[in-house]
Automatic annotation (TrEMBL):
<dbReference type="GO" id="GO:0032797">
    <property type="term" value="C:SMN complex"/>
</dbReference>
<dbReference type="GO" id="GO:0003723">
    <property type="term" value="F:RNA binding"/>
</dbReference>
<comment type="similarity">
    <text>Belongs to the WD repeat STRAP family.</text>
</comment>
<protein>
    <recommendedName>
        <fullName>Serine-threonine kinase receptor-associated protein</fullName>
    </recommendedName>
</protein>
<keyword id="KW-0508">mRNA splicing</keyword>
<dbReference type="InterPro" id="IPR001680">
    <property type="entry name" value="WD40_rpt"/>
</dbReference>
<dbReference type="GO" id="GO:0000387">
    <property type="term" value="P:spliceosomal snRNP assembly"/>
</dbReference>
<dbReference type="Pfam" id="PF00400">
    <property type="entry name" value="WD40"/>
</dbReference>
<keyword id="KW-0677">Repeat</keyword>
<dbReference type="InterPro" id="IPR036322">
    <property type="entry name" value="WD40_repeat_dom_sf"/>
</dbReference>
<keyword id="KW-0507">mRNA processing</keyword>
<keyword id="KW-0853">WD repeat</keyword>
<dbReference type="InterPro" id="IPR015943">
    <property type="entry name" value="WD40/YVTN_repeat-like_dom_sf"/>
</dbReference>
Length: 133
């Protein structure tokens, strides 16, 4: 994106339709999720290949890297998972009382807020203007 005059860099064909993409490890890795299958795939930019899959039971509706780079946060079905962004192990997993479309450690807008350490709901609010609870 910094060089619009350069030819695009291609990676192997994705196993499904891409829903989300996020950069990781100083842009050396790419996280991707597909609309029709579970798991978050980790692509190595240098080889263009999938090197690991973070397994989920349902298709992932959101995946992001925390601002401090420590966690990968995924939402699939009613589950929110926190993965170690360097070693890709599962750190925490919570089953929520509803389906989750998006999860974040740095939210701009929240309807339901849950405690990271306990998984308990601690607040219901919205930070967006003109939104009701």
């Amino acid at each position: 994106m910094n060089r619009p005059d350069a030819a695009p860099r291609e990676i192997d064909k994705s196993p499904g339709s891409i829903r989300t993409v996020a950069w990781l490890h100083s842009d050396q890795s790419i996280l991707s999720c597909c609309t029709d299958m579970g798991g978050t795939r980790l692509w190595d930019v240098r080889s263009g290949k999938i090197v690991q899959t973070l397994e989920t039971k349902a298709p992932v509706t959101s995946a992001e890297v925390s601002q401090d780079g420590r966690y990968i946060i995924t939402a699939d079905g009613s589950t929110v998972k926190f993965w170690d962004a360097n070693y890709f192990g599962l750190v925490k997993s919570y089953t929520m009382p509803c389906n989750v479309e998006s999860a974040s450690l740095e939210p701009k807008v929240w309807v339901h807020v849950f405690d990271f350490f306990t998984g308990e709901e601690i607040n219901v609010h919205s930070m967006a203007p003109n939104c009701s609870h």
